[in-house]
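Re: [help] complex structure
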Amino acid sequence: MKEVLYRIFVKRQEKYWWMNILVPVVSIFIALIVGAVFIASTGRNPFLAYKYLFGSSGLIPGPYFKSHFSEMLIASSMFIATGLAFAIPARAGLFSIGAEGQFIVGTITAAFFGYYKPLANLPTIIHLPIVLLMVIIAGGLWGLIAGYLKAKKGINETIVTIMLNWIAFHLIEGWLVTGPMKADVATGVSGTPYVSPTAKLPIILSGTRLNISILIMLFLVYAVWFLLYRTVFGYELRAMGYTAITNMEAPKIGGVNTEKRIMQIMFISGAIAALGGSFITLGVLFQYPPVFEGGYGFDGIAVALIGGNEPFGILLSGILIGALRTGATSVQLVKIPKTFPAIIEGLIVVFIALHELIRYLLVKAITKKKEGVSA
Amino acid sequence: MKKLLVAVLVVGFIVSLFAGCKPAAQQPAKIKIGLVTDVGGRGDRSFNDSALRGLETWAAKVEYVQGGGYKALSDEAFNASIPDDLKDKGITPLNVEPIVLESKAKEDYIPNIQALVEQEHCDLVIGVGFMLAGAIGESAKKYPDTKFMLIDSTPVDENGNTVDLPNVVSYLFAEQECGFLVGAIAGYATKTNKVGYIGGMAIPPVLRYEAGYRAGVKTTNPNATVIGQYTNSFVDASLGKSTAVSQMALGADVLFHAAGATGNGMFQAICEKGAPYWGIGVDVDMGLDPNLCPDRTLTSALKHVDYATYEAIKSVVDGTFKGGVITLTLKDGGVGYAPDHVKDVLTADQISKIESLKTMIINGTFTVPTDPNEVETWTPPTNF
Amino acid sequence: MEALSAKNIVKRFPNVLANDNVSLSIEKGEIFAIVGENGAGKSTLMKIIYGLYLPDSGEIYVNGEKANIKHSRDAINLKIGMVHQEFMLIPRFTVTENIVLGDEPRKFGFVFDYKQAVKEVEELSNRFALVVDPTEKVENLPVGIQQRVEILKILRRGAEILIFDEPTAVLTPEETEELFKTLRKLKEANKTIIFISHKLSEVMEIADRIAVMRRGRVQGIVKKTETNEKELAKMMVGRDVVLEIQKVKTELGEVVFKVEDLTVKNQRGVVALKDCIFDVRAGEIVAIAGVEGNGQAELVNAILGFLRPVKGTITINGNEMKFITPYDIRRKGLAYITEDRKRRGLILQYRARENIILGNHTLYPFSNKGILNDNAIDEYTTRKLEEFDIRPREAYMKAQNFSGGNQQKIILARELSSEHKFLLASQPTRGLDVGATEFVYKWLIEEKKKGIGILLISLELSEVMGLADRILVLYKGEIVGVTTPEETNEEELGLMMLGLKRKVAQ
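Output below.
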């Protein structure tokens, strides 16, 4: 067990390696306490708020657990996707915030290949993989644009990804959805046509919307972990990340083709974000709606931050954010604004960002205790 | 001491999590009406707020308290909230309990409906706007014992096909008719013989507005041209503003929008330019909204989503609910136009002509086209 | 009179006893040197005196009185100042602003009086003959002058005891000379100076008395006049050290490295290397001597592919390097030992095992079809830690936690184990202590015996004279001298390095 935890959190041979688990947990806890103070200050009952928030978040068994649980996992799988999409480049020292654009590129690609007539009569077992493959290619290529510009021209990947987000947004919502890909007005559908039933993600829990997207993400979390820690690719990727501030000189001298790697990393990142976007089309809305308030890409940054850019950390933080979103529906029933869970999410990010401080305080408290014992 | 306090808090917190997970207490005395807003949410000054007025103000006679919760509404406020053209419709409180869930994203529609049905056991669930067509369609199939109301669209199943379900009533509006009347007013009001039209997205209700507006302009002022544009957004006020500014630069002096919050930017532009520009509001009486541009609001094309909502609730309370499609028209008071500044701009003669056009539509003397492409070939009534 | 003394100082870090009952007594007005290998406990002791660490036990006396130093503030109040290895200066501030920071002269009690401050700094720099331009920004100053600013800063605070923690590590030979002049002036002004170093030649030049530390203990305190480098080295390392490099017979092979008409511009677009022609043959060591900043960095960067030559060719093992990127070089049979271990040599956050395979990580058995083989890496690392005597023998310790000497050993272990015929050694002993330096020399000679061609870039004349078969002197980007150790001496090399003499076969 210890070995497994070591391998997951990698910082073995490091003093207080378990801090990597304790610090986020403590940060989340502090955020919840501060959130309770917020709620109490508006004259509402914080316990009631949390009761409804977590009671219907899908994390704690209770009434309607099945539907909450499935909704939570549907949301989580998308947050995990964008979290991973941010974390992979981040581990290589690339600050890509293009997951938002890559996400909707995935959503629209899935919509197109989902309703595209020549494919519509294929069985699911063939149609769905084709759709997902196209999503991976489209999202990957969209991510590759920033990777190419960074690798070959040295253009800042952050700026490029921000601009690509807007380009994707206007291209899709301003043109594709209202133009070439618009559904026939006569059908009464706005946005793109609905995808063929054969392109939908199979349901794994009957009576709910829960589909295989969470299984895909579980596999991907493991795959990304394997990629990062067990392969030459991950070895070089992390080496680049550690030396990004010194222009990656050491890995370059060590024979790492950083240009090629940057492009590969951005491709993978874009592909994973797009896969998350396709879940919207193939598992939730079944079309690209006329207006799509995404935001998953930006939430992915928070997810990656809370998860410490570690694949398994992102799995947990993605589930946490998904649970907060799911619980957000029910807090309104007790007259608490739907924005409350978003405030909690923001607080968690703030306290995670202060993790160095919290780590310091924890280490100090623990060492003090130990000294006290020995004295 | 501090540790003890923290421990107590923690224990209390965890206990409370589990303690309260019972289903909400049921009050059979009151009929529960659930409502799911679209992503515009409460405070959009338009569509959602209008539906909320039908439910909260009229049917339940309560006032929303900022941040959550309700308080009782006075009789004066209740009466003041009913617009003139609906005074004769006999709107009285129905003693229902409203439960409103706002949607942060499209993916929330189904979970929200689910919560209203499963947790709150609502008798009627209202979906505001065409964006909920899919969610209402899917949910109505899943919960055949719950009644649903869908505004502005017919329900759509998970494959995108329009479905006819016995437990869903869809309320549509004859937007072309109120669009026609404001178009006729614009035709009289314009000095430059150019009027503007800003559409949100080319979806059926907005297209009906456009068709009616163009037809109305053509009727009262055949020499006038309509500068029409679609912004492809219902939420981008700055885009609405720049579109309005460019139309004014092209010479349009009366502007009409059917673009939700995007249209707020149009009023902003008109307020900044001042005379001689006029704006025409949509869905609700925007001339009453101090946050827009009441001084330069010529009229508003009214679409009584509030009345539709109220009617649907009433049918559930009365036990007369029936699935199907109901289209509200000028005839039954579902659409209309607001007086605002009409009498300051138009002559008495012109106003009476507008009223006679209204009567002609109600009597079916002529029909207003519903497709903007048909306006070209459509023959307007003469002598206007 | 006694200025400072430490009695029975003990400081324990996890796994390491850094100071083991250390006692010292330093007289007022003397230059007292403390030498020892990296990790011998010199810096720890100084940090205790300066209040950065608290000792586990032991006492410190200043001017005969027991001092209670819990914080560097306390040390400053006791007129103790410290010049750190890494300067505590704000690059964007001027010299004056840096010097007065934290204790600014004021007008009306709250307005910063810059003119007054400049005046004070000028006065101070005249008094100690430490020439600086008070209004120049620190970022524009060479390292030697920046150090001077640091010294002025602590002098302004009234320091009587000045601690220098390896001050020469970052300096060029000329700057070192300047520093020594300064130290002598400070001594004349009756200041007490504690000088930390591991370079024995420097200590022998400047110190009055020398304390030698090894593994946290003081091995002995000797007067300079009563000792010599060899004895000090023995005390430091604990055994006899071969400082004289034994010459090995050279067996020349084919040409493994060649540059022709090489002209390189640096990042600012200035020609930094002009028309260089030379070659390195298998089995010989060619040394490039010169003062730092005369084109060595550009030569290295051009060879590694970081800079593209304006003109000329570079040939490694018969392959001409054209439009080559750094990662391609690795496949051409080149090994590279760098002075910039932290930036170029190692990935500091990586463990020893991960650093030791860098460059060969794509090869069997470390990886197979792109998947790393942990067991093979562990086994290999364990073997290399033993072979290159890297301490501690912790394959899983991060590179940043190894001492400088052991970091360099990790680099040696990696580079010399990879397949290569040509070795580029750029100041391989910079910042290393005697033991580690000896180790590097030993391995360079081993390489030579194996028939590897070595290009050695060095600032240390003794190193050049001792190791090289041929010497090239670089001055302002040009080769101004081509000679051999037998045909020249350090004095002549020095003249060539300063551009005062040319010796090129026409």
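The radius of gyration of chain B is 23 Å.
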